[in-house]
Amino acid sequence: MKAIQILGDISSPKVNTNYSMPEPTPRNSEVLVRVHAAGVTGDEILWPEPYAAPSRIPGHDISGVISAFGPDYSGPLKHGQEVYAMIAADRGEGQADYVICLADEVTPKPTSISHEEAAALPIPILTAWEGLIDHGALKAGMRVLVTGASGAVGTFAVQFATQLAGAHVIALASSKNHELLRQLGAHEVLDYNASSWKSQVTDVDLVFDTVGGDVLIKSWETVKDDGAIVTVGDPAPSWAFGRGRAVESIDHPKVRHMHFILTPNAERMQQASDMIDAGTVKVLAVETFPFHKAEEAWAFARQRSRNGKVVIKFAEAENSQSSHK
Ligand SMILES: NC(=O)c1ccc[n+]([C@@H]2O[C@H](COP(=O)([O-])OP(=O)(O)OC[C@H]3O[C@@H](n4cnc5c(N)ncnc54)[C@H](OP(=O)(O)O)[C@@H]3O)[C@@H](O)[C@H]2O)c1
């Protein structure tokens, strides 16, 4: 089968296209999916997992069709069904013609969108939902600052914060994206390029940060004394992964602060599918690349202020198109 590999090491990665990889076989209750399109999270090239996998195949977000089941599978999914999946952070291997998924990673894809659009969604949807609801304990009426609000994760954070909890959302993004963010439900929009942005935000109950670095540090000045900061920005802050407390907490001792790695959750993806098909949640713009342009796709995905989530196409579906021939 065709697959993308990340060769080399983390200091000098090389995106490779391989046309003769072995096709995986599902065991136990695993599900084999014929991948139609796979999403690219550019920062995955900085994560240790793709280098640890013997296959060197990256990719956690896929949309495709069920091809086979392991002998013990007894769930509701059917052969030939169109599905999307988020494969757990410690496995991946989604950027290939076929991928093994665990049964609780796969759910029917939204019917109103293409495989390319669906492949862009699992990580952004699950990260936003888990960050706001599980770690951020979001409640109705809270004031929430979303940084990187125009990005893939941020776009869903803005929509979920307003729709799942009725929160008051303050979105931080370049001014070119402000109109879109207002349409998605943001109540206030601020430009991170204006140095004064942090003085315009006060009394925030929850910061959901998808940028990290300087933006994360400044966000401490916006949060209430007993508020919370949840971050997924890469690289992770020095205090992540149980390495102690943030230095900023000396001045803000009651502010809860946490970094997390998302977990797969097919049930939430099903709920998100329903919201997408009902038209209440808008999906991301996608830039689709053909398989042979994988290196270009990864380079594009690593640009921070590009428009749209990068998707690589593996199989031809009806009505599917590549933005990059
Ligand atoms: N821990 C986890 O489980 C997890 C899960 C998913 C993602 N992540 C990480 O979360 C981050 C966001 O992911 P994503 O897919 O949403 O990324 P993305 O689509 O590339 O969005 C990044 C956003 O950051 C904004 N931005 C760029 N430079 C900025 C700056 N200097 N200051 C403030 N904002 C800036 C951009 O806004 P404008 O376009 O408006 O300029 C852009 O919309 C990535 O680092 C990713 O690796 C972590």
Automatic annotation (TrEMBL):
InterPro entries on file: ADH-like_N, ER, GroES-like_sf, NAD(P)-bd_dom_sf, YIM1/Zinc_Alcohol_DH_Fams
SUPFAM superfamilies: GroES-like, NAD(P)-binding Rossmann-fold domains
Domain Enoyl reductase (ER), first and last residues per copy: 8-312
Any one GO molecular function term: oxidoreductase activity
SMART domains given in the database record: PKS_ER
Pfam families membership: ADH_N, ADH_zinc_N_2
Protein name from the UniProt record: Enoyl reductase (ER) domain-containing protein
Organism of provenance: Penicillium atrosanguineum
Lineage: Eukaryota, Fungi, Dikarya, Ascomycota, Pezizomycotina
